[in-house]
Design goal:
The chain is α+β, with helices and mostly antiparallel strands. 20% of the residues lie in helices and 20% in strands. It has three domains: 2-96 and 322-362, no CATH class; 155-226 and 269-289, no CATH class; 230-265, no CATH class. The protein has a six-stranded mixed beta sheet. A hairpin with a 5-residue loop joins β12 and β13 (182-185). The protein binds 2-acetamido-2-deoxy-beta-D-glucopyranose (NAG) (5 copies). Residues 36, 68 line the site of one 2-acetamido-2-deoxy-beta-D-glucopyranose.
Length: 363
């Protein structure tokens, strides 16, 4: 159900992004309400009224568009829907419970404890794959991937020739060498000037060595240069014919009808990207060392071994308040990391919401 809400936000965002050609429709307001404030969808304005961390939107009737923010239900409390339960908890048999936290080979009491398609073996009381074919990587051992033929396979080792990312090990990418040959590269391992795949998402894993100050910029591992930053103009023309003076990590948002606009930060600055990459490299290394799958639950391997690295990554990769509004509103990790909610209403550009929602999906 939580995924459905995120998807709904995504489609709504996509809808407004399409509508957003006209200047004054370019961005929408998001609220982030506390106890007993109105939430849901304002069909007149298209505004999404979210509840802040620790609250869920309770609708009086099933088809209501608007409801009231109520306190989330903690472990063991009665519920009828996943959305009512605090953070990453789900509604299981009418009670908020922690589900799907155990990876392959870990202990379980019932199948609800096992992640994805794994089942709890009654004989061994551990999570096991349910058939001779795999559905996803979670069905396979940590060092193996699930192939297109639904069989687990040992990925291509670091430094060996590859064609695609999914042939390489967990978190490794298939990167080009200077002569065009592609080889698997360990995350955060490549030196300055190495070719990297710049996916444009600073929160995603790259092959460049963050601890040497490198991030992937335009497909090259580059030293972050904070001196290139120039002051952001407060008054610019947004339209496509005007020479925009906004920086790479900013976008021009119209502030009134016509093309009068302002530069808003919409993604991480180079310095923020590096900070995020450094924190993420420690987190990924911890997952690899402990063979933990990326399962964010209070009883998961990730939490048992890499909780501090995970929370440092969340902090290090957190974007400024205005950009991060949706994530701040509804932080699924709230019962893992201490997060501070916000009850303010901030305008954010729609495509940022799209990017954020996408990053939640693919990260
Ligand atoms: C919550 O809001 C509703 C509607 O505005 C009101 O009737 C109700 O008394 C409020 N409840 C509390 C506990 O404040
Ligand atoms: C919904 O949007 C309209 C138009 O912007 C506004 O007048 C109204 O107060 C909003 N309702 C709520 C519940 O936010
Ligand atoms: C099932 O899990 C075992 C480890 O318990 C693993 O060795 C095997 O490759 C997995 N097979 C499939 C098809 O998922
Ligand atoms: C490209 O360079 C790598 C490493 O220097 C080397 O192993 C590989 O054989 C080269 N490939 C070609 C096609 O020359
Ligand atoms: C775009 O901006 C330029 C320069 O400010 C202006 O001359 C032009 O009329 C604008 N076009 C539109 C469609 O607003």
């Amino acid at each position: 159900m939580k995924q459905i809400i995120i998807l709904a936000i995504f489609f709504l965002a996509a809808f407004y992004a399409v509508q957003g050609e006209q200047c004054d429709l370019y961005y929408e307001e998001y609220a982030c309400g506390g106890f007993n404030t109105t939430c849901g969808l304002n069909v007149t304005s298209g505004q999404q009224l979210l509840c802040q961390t620790g609250y869920y939107c309770q609708f009086a009737n099933k088809d209501d568009k608007l409801g009231l923010c109520q306190e989330s239900i903690d472990l063991g409390g009665k519920c009828t829907d996943d959305d009512q339960c605090l953070g990453s908890y789900d509604c299981e048999n009418g009670v908020c419970a922690e589900t799907q936290f155990a990876q392959l080979g870990e202990e379980c009491a019932s199948t609800a404890d096992c992640y994805s398609k794994l089942i709890c073996s009654t004989a061994t009381k551990t999570c096991t794959n349910s058939s001779t074919t795999c559905h996803d990587d979670y069905d396979c051992q940590f060092d193996e991937n699930c192939g297109k033929d639904n069989q687990c396979f040992a990925p291509i080792a670091v430094g060996q020739v590859c064609d695609k990312d999914d042939e390489c090990g967990t978190y490794s990418l298939c990167e080009k060498l200077a002569n065009g040959t592609k080889v698997c590269a360990a995350p955060y391992s490549l030196a300055e000037n190495a070719i990297c795949s710049d996916n444009g998402n600073p929160n995603k894993i790259t092959s460049c060595d963050a601890n040497k100050g490198l991030v992937c910029l335009k497909d090259v591992c580059s030293l972050v240069n904070t001196n290139t930053l120039t002051p952001t103009p407060s008054d610019v023309k947004c339209n496509s014919t005007a020479t925009t003076t906004c920086q790479d990590f900013e976008d021009c948002i119209c502030t009134s009808a016509g093309d009068q606009g302002k530069c808003y930060q919409t993604s991480a600055t180079p310095t923020q990207s590096l900070q995020c990459a450094k924190a993420n490299s420690k987190f990924i290394q911890c997952l690899i060392t402990n063979k933990c799958q990326n399962i964010v639950k209070p009883s998961s391997c990730l939490y048992n071994h890499c909780a501090s690295e995970y929370c440092d990554m969340k902090d290090g990769c957190a974007l400024p308040q205005a950009i991060n509004q949706v994530e701040n509103c509804q932080d699924i990790a709230q019962n893992i990391c201490a997060v501070t909610g916000s009850s303010s209403t901030i305008a954010i550009p729609m495509f940022t919401v799209v990017a954020l929602v996408l990053s939640v999906f693919f990260f």
